[in-house]
Amino acid sequence: SQSMIDSLRQELNNSKDDIEKIGILNRLSFEYIWQNTDTAITLANQSVKLSEANEYRKGLPSAYRSLSLAEKLKGNFDKAIEYTQKAIALYDEFEDTSSLAISYKDLGDIYHSQGEDEPKSVEYLLKALRLAESIGDKKTMAACFNNIALAYKHMENYDKAIEYHHKSIELKQEMGNRRSLVFSYANLGVVYNNTGLIDEGIEYYLKALDIAEDFGNKVHLAAINENLGLAYKDNKEFNKARRSISKALEYFSEIDDGVGIAISYYNLAELSKDQKNYSSGLNFAKRSLEKSLEINSAVQIMDSYKIYHELYSLLGNYKQAYEYLKLYKDKNESIFNEEKHEQIAELQTKYETEKKQQQIALLEKEQQLNAEVIEKQEITIYFIIGMLLVSVVFTITIFRQYKKTAESNKALVKKNLELMQTETSIYSLKKNQNKFSDDTKLEILDKLNTYIEDKKIFKTPKLSIDNLAKELDTNRTYLSEIINDEYGTNFNQFINSRRVIEARKMLVDTKYEIYTIESIAEEVGFSSKSVFNESFKKFTGISPSFFRQNALKKSA
């Protein structure tokens, strides 16, 4: 709290003893972790330096733990692991079992947050649990049980997740910690829903709701009611679902949570769709869109367009369905740029995507020519150096050529970011250019859009045209002809282009910063990194690594 920070600051200013200052710096650093990570790191480093200067090793592990927690929050997981391991070594040396258990829990939490090695996360959490059990530290034990459950949930080992959630709940009940039970019950409800045990999920949502009502936190009440309503919806208990979601809407309205209000209206529209009450669904969709536009929530605007499209499709109003699908697609493609590249909004957008691709091709050609020039001039400069002639002019020339190549590559990044802004819906009907009626073609394209954009079927490794045609209730000949007519390419190139578009978004999304390029390639459906690199270069003109590095710089 701020009062605690102010008090510790005063103590630090008044202290004359270095050992005392080390303790204050460690406590102060810990208080800052969830308010200002940079300040927390600065204070912890001051503690480390002072501890080392005074050869006071007992001051180091607390400083290392603060550094670990702060770096974890910043997403610097390797540093967080390094500092935690230093703390563990010292706590082990000092035989401080309580702190050692907490540090092993921290290490397990870091691996869970990193998301790449959940088994290792569980390994360290279990180690922490055994230490906590040996000294009867129920608080740390409950935290370990809860975090082990979350790790197992992430691995989709729901049986183990349920087992450890129950263990955490038992300890919290024993300690009388009702407030924290709200989150445990709600988390357990989510796990049960994920396993298809909806009745059990509903049971724990109701338990969470019962406690939350005692404390009266409207944020918690809104969220639990919303999730409970969705569980009822999945269970086909539509009346209960409507009551719970409507209750959530009341709470969201009371706390003036615009996003929550828009989401509740959207879920009510979805519920009406499932009940085949399409007119009611359109009314809720209208309210969701109005609120989304009012708060300028791009994601909720996009979702509102989507439910409009689905409702009009079910009503057989294909013209309106098509219009809202176009709006949905446009908003979907623009969200990345609105969030990550505001400066691109000022660029001209009048050029068609085909023109952008032509510019990319020209820039790629220019890049190749520059590379040839550089190679020739490198040979020249080595000769000149060997002959002890004046090389300054040539060195400058070489530098300029390298600079020109770098500028060409950066221009390619810029063009690709512009492309991400101007890529259009997969709908682009060409009248009278094929044997299908527009209605038939629109129907197939509508299904294709759903499977490509919503279900992202292109992420399926080794996806074949036969498999996709079967999903679309058509045959490979018709599907191949439509893809060729609409996109001027074959099936494999079309699928790979969608994979590259998806990968391009992930490469500039900070959520995927910890993903390797190979992991992203696999995530979007490529069977090998080499195929991905080749396809990405063909589609964008640059390598994925260069695009990621420079696009993230532009968004920084």
User: Whole-Å distance between the termini?
Assistant: 30 Å
The proportion of residues forming helix, as a percent range, comes to: over 70%
Unreliable stretches: 336-355, 378-406, 421-437
The average pLDDT is: 78
Order of helices and strands: HHHHHHHHHHHHHHHHHHHHHHHHHH
Number of strands: 0
Instruction: Please state the CA-atom Rg, rounded to the nearest Å.
Output: 29 Å
Give the number of helices.
26
Categorize the overall geometry: globular
Structural class: mainly alpha
The share of residues in extended strands comes to: under 5%
Largest sheet: none
Overview of this protein structure:
Helix 4 runs antiparallel to helix 5, helix 13 (238-254) runs antiparallel to helix 14 and helix 23 packs across helix 24 (517-523). The model is unreliable at 336-355, 378-406 and 421-437 (pLDDT under 50). By secondary structure, this protein is an all-alpha fold. The two termini are 30 Å apart. It has helices at 2-14, 18-32, 37-53, 60-73, 77-93, 97-114, 118-135, 138-154, 158-175, 178-194, 198-215, 218-234, 238-254, 258-274, 278-295, 298-314, 318-340, 353-386, 392-422, 438-454, 465-471, 476-487, 491-507, 517-523, 529-540, 544-555. The longest helix has 34 residues, at 353-386. It is built from 26 helices and no strands.
